[in-house]
Specification:
Blueprint: H1 7-28, H2 34-54, H3 58-88
Helix pairs in contact: 1-2, 2-3
């Protein structure tokens, strides 16, 4: 494999680091902040999508679309839960 390490690849590697970091956080933390977890996953998916738009891999691009959708769902749910807690307290 002789693919150059160009700007798109570096952005993709940063996205990969975000997703791996979020997974490690989920696995290692006793209690997680859903905004940090899902926000980091969304950032990772967005960065990887930028990379994949330059170096197209359709299977990975579809995966990142689902990854981003799940992260957005998690953020919306966390936001609603926070709003509901604010109304109760």
């Amino acid at each position: 494999m002789n693919a150059p390490l160009d700007w798109a690849s570096i952005i993709g590697l940063c996205g990969t680091a975000c997703i791996i970091g979020a997974y490690a956080y989920l696995t290692l933390a006793k209690a997680t902040n859903p905004f940090l977890l899902h926000g980091t996953n969304l950032l990772g998916a967005a960065l990887l999508t930028v990379s994949l738009l330059v170096h197209t891999n359709w299977a990975s691009l579809v995966l990142e679309g689902f990854w981003a959708s799940i992260a957005i769902f998690g953020l919306v749910r966390a936001w609603r839960n926070r709003a509901a807690e604010g109304e109760q307290g």
